[in-house]
Amino acid sequence: DAIDYLTSNVLLPMGGFAIAVFAGWVLPRAAVAEELSLGPRGAALLAVLLRWVTPSLIAATALAPLLLRG
């Protein structure tokens, strides 16, 4: 049970957070846009989502069970 909890509730959110941060902040925007066949507007929207929205939501989702335990 402990390994299942660790992988499901800790490692998966951490991996998603790391991928979103890497794709949003480290990879060049042009490379991501080219790989996904996005235009300039789509690339700009994706950059905002990967830099700010997605990490925030993943962090909130990962921390919610810890904060709402009662």
Description:
With 70 residues, the protein is mainly α. The chain has three helices and no strands. Helix 1 (2-26) packs antiparallel against helix 3 (40-67). The chain is elongated, with a radius of gyration of 15 Å. The two termini are 21 Å apart.
Low-pLDDT stretches: none
- Structural class by helix and strand composition: mainly alpha
Number of helices: 3
> What's the total number of strands?
0
Tell the overall outline: elongated
Q: How much helix, percentage-wise, in residues?
A: over 70%
Mean pLDDT: 93
Radius of gyration over C-alpha positions, nearest whole angstrom? 15 Å
N/C terminus separation: 21 Å
Major sheet? none
Amount of beta strand: under 5%
H/E element order: HHH
What is this entry, summarized?
The chain has 70 residues and is mostly helical.
Q: What keywords describe this structure?
A:
70 residues, mainly alpha, 87% helix
Topology at a glance:
Layout: H1 2-26, H2 29-36, H3 40-67
Helix pairs in contact: 1-3, 2-3
